[in-house]
Amino acid sequence: MTDEQGLPRSPEQTRELMENLDFEPAPAPDREAALLATLPPPGSEVMVVRSLRLSMELDEAVTAAANASDVAKSTWIRQAIEMALAMQADEDQPISRADALRALTLLRTVRHAA
Questions:
Q1: pTM above the 0.90 mark?
Q2: What is the pLDDT of residues 86-100, one digit of tens each?
């Protein structure tokens, strides 16, 4: 007998499960190369997938904000989380995008004047 999740509960059930496993053959070398090419480069940052529930209104607001910023929703949410975490850090004080653009505009003006 198996448990509620369909897992074997005895050595015999485990043996039967293992004997009935069916593995796909290894991909052809060109297909394997194509699959490997889709992987992130070695040493790249590991991204963790999280699932969260949003109200319809909040999801629509996130979609609108992401579209206005011309980024994917997941990127916008990630940036919002980073901003919230930065606001909690004692040594960092985030600024608005408008303030950052104003500061960059002033730097560009100073560079041309010098």
A1: no
A2: 777 766 666 788 888
Dihedral angle, C-alpha 85, 88, 92, 97, nearest 10 °: 60
Q: Are 76 and 65 in contact (CB under 8 A)?
A: yes
What residues pair up with 2 in beta bridges, in sequence order?
A: 8
Residue 72 contacts residue 66 (beta carbons within 8 Å):
yes
Distance CA 62, CA 73 (A): 7
**pLDDT bucket at 83, cuts 50 / 70 / 90:** confident
Integer CA distances (angstroms), 85 to 25, 46, 77, 91, 92, in order: 46, 19, 12, 11, 9
